[in-house]
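Input sequence (312 aa), recorded before submission:
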Amino acid sequence: MKITIIVPCYNEELVIKILYNRLMNVLSNYNDYEIIFINDGSNDNTEYIIDKYRKENNNIKLFSFSRNFGHQAAVSCGILNSSGDIAIIIDADLQDPPELIPSMIDEYIKSKSNVIYAKRISREGENFFKKITSNLFYRLVNLLSDIKFPIDTGDFRLIDKNVIDAYKQFKENPKYIRGLISWMGFKQQPFLYNRKPREAGKTKYTYKKMFNLALTGIISFSTKPLRISLILGILSILCGIILSLYVFIKYFFFNADIIKGWASIMITVIFMGGVQLLSLSVISEYLSKIYEQIKNRPEFIIKSNRETNYEK
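Predicted structure, token format:
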């Protein structure tokens, strides 16, 4: 059984050496393996350091992007270029300990699952805001989506050849990979662990990137936000109709004094606002379907592909 380790990297020069040594300690017990490093447009010495290891080890592949395309694109590149029977996705920052890899493989063999996803019991080294927003995100996605995703998980997981081959059929961009793997089905098994603090350096996942990932996750697996807009539009129209009836009854049956102009303005604003929301929602339903089909830009661009030991 050939093992592929997929490691997306972005400005990780402070931690690459530690990661490499710990990975090699783990993989020394396996005969057939490959490590795929994806340099996601780093502007430090990450690419140079990895390339040095690649020249010393024929089992290392290095894909370098022409710019920073993002974590999900880097993971996708690793999956698409994997040649293993199983692939394990792990970040370079060592928050997900490489020493758990043998246990994940044992769980994969024992459970006969297609996916072993790491589920966090605790998240050391993360601030309260990061933890609370992460918890809210997973629950919001599950609330809005027709597919139920495991909560408190990331991309740290083991996938087998069936999942890898299925993944290669997906052409959408951008991708929400953990969501796509859940959507595929297959047999999926949780693996509980305690997430560690970063070994060195600072997180590259800014709040903006986290927001974009969350938005991708929600939009990719749910049309409910569009339907919520549709419901709001209908409610606005109903409010406009009810207000119109109220003003009509008060004025003609009870001779109530109505401020001149107020009623007509309010009714027009509420009613037309509801009509606009309703119309936009219907258009969005069609537009969202078309939009997903016509996007044909590449997910990433590889600047250099160093898969073999061309220099020693």
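Checked by second reader. The beta strands are 3-9, 33-39, 60-65, 86-89, 115-123, 153-160, 188-195, 302-306.
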